[in-house]
Amino acid sequence: MNSIRLNLLKWLIVPLLIINLVGAGVTYWLAWIPAQTAFDQSLADTGWALVPRLHEHNGEVGIDLSEQAEQVLRVDHLGATYFVVRNHDGKLLAGDADFPPLQYSGSDKAINKPTPYDGVMRSEPMRFVSLKAEVGQQVVFIGVAETLRKRTHIRSEILFSLAMLEILLAAVLTTTIWVAVSRGLWPLQKMQQDLDARNTPPYDDLSPLPEAGVQQELLPVVRAVNGLLGRLQIDAKAQQNFLANVAHQLRTPLAGFRTQLEWLLQKHAQEPETAHSIALMASSTERMIRQTNQLLTLARAEPNKFEKDSLKVVELNKLVEESIQHFVEEADKKDIDIGFNLQTTRVMGEQFLLRDLIDNLIDNAIRYSPSKGTVTVHAIQGKDGGIFSVEDSGPGIAASEQEFIFNRHYRLDDKSAGNGLGLAIVRDITKDHGARITVEPRVGGGTIFSVYFPFAILGAPSKLPGS
């Protein structure tokens, strides 16, 4: 997957780690070269310590070096130190007879200038320092050597310390870069979260993303997204207006058609075949009227079109009472026992939309309840506001389907008549009223739909049925 985060981390961390390693190498040499120089200087000082003990007598060079002084020169806790003093003829004056031939750099006239170099003595790597000194008129050759154990020990400590430091710096750099990249990408993640929050039913939030406080680099992206959302919003409004206009234009001719069919049914009541045919047409017309009304309600209940100023104090129980006769007649057709528990329940609402909410919930309960089933309607004043609930004895709704039943055109089965808009309308109306809806299983089988309304605002204008 092509990731901005991974690309940023790759192009930041890898070069910094390489620079860090190069810096570590430079630091190592900057630390080791002075240490090596100090060791060589210490080795040269050992050679210089021999010069004051040399003397010339009758053209011959001698040395005054006691056994205790020689032991002091050879003291080395981590390794071993060797030395040699020879005259200009190569004769051994003091020190180790097996000391290798001395090496010098530059001219042979370079007196009192130490020459450090690497070599081998007694089958062991050594560090040597050779120098020439004048004793009277004679030239004396002095060589000092020591094992590399002390230097190797110090070098190991330098390398270990640098390795630990590099590991720590690499961890700090990686963490710092990771945090910096994450903080830098946070505006993108915030934008993603804002857009993801809209990816929930009813998927109708097309409001523009806020531009205030947006980073300069993201501003073109936000404006492009807002332009797309604006075009979608225009298209959605055009679609809603078209839907509302079509539904509104269909209501009048359909109502007239139903009236004519009722008249024909009365006129031909004595003709069984004609009456049956007219009854079928009347039933189809009734379904068309219901679907048209639902389309009109759906367009009117769209949350982004609803005006909160239209909310007034409504007595929910009286809205139910107005339609009790209709609900009882519909329940009788399926021999369903329908009951009502209605208390004075005041809510802030728009009575036409609330009637549609009530009709759809009770109609669904009757439609999905089996013959000889039960449906109970409640309207009560709870401690937090009004509650309207409908419980049925239908087949129930699986938990896996409860998140989908409020989507448009979603149906639990194809056996019951309907277009799958009823619960979508209920969802939109619930959202318009700042309420929430719950779906719970009923004890003994069936489902309970409950709508919880906020408290009605005291002193708000009333909009009671019949007003």
From TrEMBL:
<protein>
    <recommendedName>
        <fullName>histidine kinase</fullName>
        <ecNumber>2.7.13.3</ecNumber>
    </recommendedName>
</protein>
<dbReference type="InterPro" id="IPR003661">
    <property type="entry name" value="HisK_dim/P_dom"/>
</dbReference>
<dbReference type="InterPro" id="IPR013727">
    <property type="entry name" value="2CSK_N"/>
</dbReference>
<dbReference type="Pfam" id="PF00512">
    <property type="entry name" value="HisKA"/>
</dbReference>
<keyword id="KW-0808">Transferase</keyword>
<dbReference type="GO" id="GO:0000155">
    <property type="term" value="F:phosphorelay sensor kinase activity"/>
</dbReference>
<dbReference type="InterPro" id="IPR005467">
    <property type="entry name" value="His_kinase_dom"/>
</dbReference>
<dbReference type="InterPro" id="IPR050428">
    <property type="entry name" value="TCS_sensor_his_kinase"/>
</dbReference>
<dbReference type="InterPro" id="IPR003594">
    <property type="entry name" value="HATPase_dom"/>
</dbReference>
<dbReference type="InterPro" id="IPR036097">
    <property type="entry name" value="HisK_dim/P_sf"/>
</dbReference>
<keyword id="KW-0472">Membrane</keyword>
<dbReference type="Pfam" id="PF08521">
    <property type="entry name" value="2CSK_N"/>
</dbReference>
<keyword id="KW-1133">Transmembrane helix</keyword>
<dbReference type="InterPro" id="IPR036890">
    <property type="entry name" value="HATPase_C_sf"/>
</dbReference>
<feature type="transmembrane region" description="Helical">
    <location>
        <begin position="158"/>
        <end position="181"/>
    </location>
</feature>
<feature type="transmembrane region" description="Helical">
    <location>
        <begin position="12"/>
        <end position="33"/>
    </location>
</feature>
<keyword id="KW-0597">Phosphoprotein</keyword>
<feature type="domain" description="Histidine kinase">
    <location>
        <begin position="245"/>
        <end position="457"/>
    </location>
</feature>
<keyword id="KW-0812">Transmembrane</keyword>
<keyword id="KW-0418">Kinase</keyword>
<dbReference type="InterPro" id="IPR004358">
    <property type="entry name" value="Sig_transdc_His_kin-like_C"/>
</dbReference>
<dbReference type="Pfam" id="PF02518">
    <property type="entry name" value="HATPase_c"/>
</dbReference>
<dbReference type="GO" id="GO:0005886">
    <property type="term" value="C:plasma membrane"/>
</dbReference>
